Amino acid sequence: MGRRGRALAFLLAALLAAATAAAIADGYGASVVRGYGELRPVLVAVEDLKAGEEIGPRQAAALESRRIPVRFVPPGALSGAAEAIGLAPVGTVPAGSYLLASQLRPPRLDPGDALGLGEGRHPVEIAVSGAEALMVAGAQPVGDRVDVVVTAEPGGSGTGRTYVAASSVPLLALGPGSDGTAAEGLAAATLGLTRGQALRLIAAESFARRVTLLPRG
What is the pTM of this model? Predict the structure, then answer.
């Protein structure tokens, strides 16, 4: 047999082996389907997913879709990473575990974040003086940022000190005082404050002569 003949024989043998392997694989797959049902995609964590950490594109890289017999698919199993994006695990999901819908929740938001205030800010209502000046010429100050200026009562024969107690804070609402009226020229302002700013201004309500909102810009 010449060189060309041997090459042809090897090629035919390789094709025969490939066909045999494919037939065996098809037979095994058909056997699995008959015994356990159709194959379905399921989402598996290939790395630990931390509790409370929102699943974004980076975390999605730690997820892998695999096909298993429908008989073994757990209830609520996700089939693709897109279903998990934007959600956060209730508890830690160990590597190798199926990812289930019951394990995920929308991430908890800081109350300030939910209002678009930024991390660590919360809505706080304080009594302010001179709020009508913010409404000059029909302006609508709600939504703008303001400085909160405190004027302290004079001590002894000195004059009261005036200072900015909170700078560039969002004004969320402005209305009558807590009794529904603008008694003594006071209005109720709801501001987006950090904890430190809130404590300073709540204290100032007790000892200051005036708490005033000053528009920025």
Answer: 0.46
